[in-house]
Design brief:
- By secondary structure, the chain is α+β, with helices and mostly antiparallel strands.
- Helices cover about 35% and strands about 30% of the residues.
- The protein has helices at about 40-45, 65-75, 80-90, 110-115, 135-140, 145-155, and strands spanning about 5, 5-10, 20-25, 35, 45-50, 60, 95-100, 105, 120-125, 130-135.
- The chain contains 6 helices and 10 strands; from the N terminus they run E-E-E-E-H-E-E-H-H-E-E-H-E-E-H-H.
- The strands form 3 sheets. Strands 3-9-10-6-5-7 form a 6-stranded antiparallel beta sheet. A two-stranded antiparallel sheet has the order 1-2.
- A hairpin with a 5-residue loop joins strand 5 and strand 6 (about 60).
Length: about 160
Amino acid sequence: MVVNGGQVDPPPPRQVISMFMGEYNHTVDAKGRLIVPSKFREQLGEEFVVTKGLDGCLFVYDNKEWTVLEEKLKSLPLTNANARKFSRFFLAGATSCEVDRQGRILLPAVLREHAGIEKDAVLVGVGSRIEIWSKEAWTAANTYDDMEEIAEAMEGLGI
């Protein structure tokens, strides 16, 4: 706090966290609709992109991050077979989603099938994106028995 001519300067504004984080469990209804947690909706905005993700989940990007990914995919060489396949993987299944009044999005069947989501889903904030997992796949893929070894390996990546 700084006193300035008898006036007290207000504290600096609190920095807003701009990354996605947290874990939320929801169910997909019979029509393929999924509730997006309000904390995620606030950051995503009214429209965003859901696409096939790695590790058997779905990736959710706000429009800004999606544009960054699109630009990177556009810059890949058309003559490289792996680049074409990689672009196809992310773009073919991508869909623009809008949140309805109840805070739900419609997950197309092709995306639900890719992630094996039938009923129970887990939405996980992982920095610049959200991942949507089937509850079963999330539980199976995310055991942390080897976290000490992984942490040691991260040192080489600057973490």
